[in-house]
Structures are given as structure tokens and as C-alpha cells.
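With this grant's support, we have settled on a layout for protein records. A representative record follows, to show the layout.
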Amino acid sequence: MDIEYDISLCLDTPMGLEELRTFIAAVEAHSEPAAYEVLAQPADFRPESPAGWELQDDWPNLRLLPRPEPNRRPTRQPAANRIRLLNQAINQARGRYPAPWSPAVLPLTGCLPTLVEFMDEETETAAAAPRLVNQQGDPIAGRRRLPGLPTLLLLHTPLGQTGLLGGMVLKHHYYAELPPVLSQATAEFLNDRALLLRRPALEEVGGFDPAFHHRYADADFCRRAARMGWYCHYLATAVARETQPWVHQVDYLRRQPQPGHLADAGRLLLKKWGRRR
């Protein structure tokens, strides 16, 4: 008998065997009563390998996606386009709510059922995101404002490293939930490290734009959804642990090994939305 999945957790990066086991174990421990599947692309083994067979025997609700063949032709695109991988998983998802998710974000007790219940009730919501916390339980900014030109300059150039004004602008962008949101609130921009998406909204809005490669595809999706009358919600009562909290920090963004791709993403975001705020 086929299972009707509530959630399809679409992992956004290739990962190793142990990382995948850790993630699925966390989901399994905290998913009930929501039914889930996990779609993932392995990094250090293939789905048809003994390790792949063993993993899928242990977790029948895991679907391993085939690894793409390496592109031997010269290209300016990044070697691994995270957004293309994410769209591939979303297109193959069988659950009622496809969920772009990072394997480094581990759902805590009640996180997934709370998100499903909220989406079932709030039928005009295109995307819902949980509250992310670090290992100590401190909140990580996840409900943000869509960045404009001043924010992008401060985030991705040396301008943001000095000056009180720069700090105030970045705080306005990152901490849209201050004062703290205790239940739920609408958002211009939800981080795609943990999201639930509504299928009718995906069909109307379209998937994530792969032109963004690694950054701002989530901001672009939320903006397109809002233009079509959908809402995006931050849900503080659903909590997930971010095991890589540093990826949300401004200094981490500035240290990326491919800063050109980050600049390209910022220019594309401004080109699409800079005059439509």
C-alpha cells in the first residue's frame, strides 16, 4: 500500500553517509504523527552501491537521487548548483508539502507536525519556516526583509565592515523578528535552509530560479509568491536546531570562495526586484 506522505524533505546538498544517517535519525525521532520521506543525493557513494542499498533497507522512506555525471565542458557555472539539485528533488517529491531543507538543520520535537498543521489551516500560505536555534538554544535570525541595494552593498563589500549606520541597516535586514515573535508572523524573506512549500503555490509561482546558484533564490521565491497574493510565514512554535550557525553570519558570507557568484546573485536580485518594492 502506498503511503501518503505529509512532507517530502528535499535535501539541498550532496552529503556523506554518516551525515545522512544523523539527519534521518533526527527526523524519525521527531516526525510523528506527520508522515515523511527524504530525498537526498549522496556525495561519497552511489544509490546502487552496497552502502546505498543498506541505507535504503534501513530507511524505506529514503529516496536516493542519482549523482549527475561530471560536466567536462568549460563553464562559468559553479561546479554544484545547489538550486538545480533542490529543484530536482522538489520535482520528484511525493509528499503534500515539498520541503527544501539543509541536512545540517535537525528538526526538534513537534517541529514538523506543527508546520504541517499550520499549512493545513492557513491555506493562503505558500511557504512556512521554523524558528532556528543554535546548539545552546539561542535563536538564529530566519525571518528577514528583502535586501535592497544598501543592504547588499553592506553584506558583500567592505562597506559593511565599518560604521554604525552599516550595522543598523544590517540589523534591520537580519532581525525582522525583533521584538521576538512568539507565535507566527508574515515575512518578506524566509531562509531556504528549512521550509515547507504548498504545491498549488509552487505550480503558480514556479520553482527556485537556478540563476541564483547558491544565494537569494529563497528571497526571489518569496517575492514572486507575494506578488501573486500568497503569504510567507515564520512559525516560532516550530523549532529546529541549526548545527552550522556560522553560515548565517555576515563574515561567513564575505569569506565565500566564489565571491563573484555572490555578487552575481545580488545583481540579479536587484535587477528583478530593485524597483518593485
Observations:
- The chain has ten helices and twelve strands.
- The CA atoms of residues 167 and 177 lie 16 Å apart.
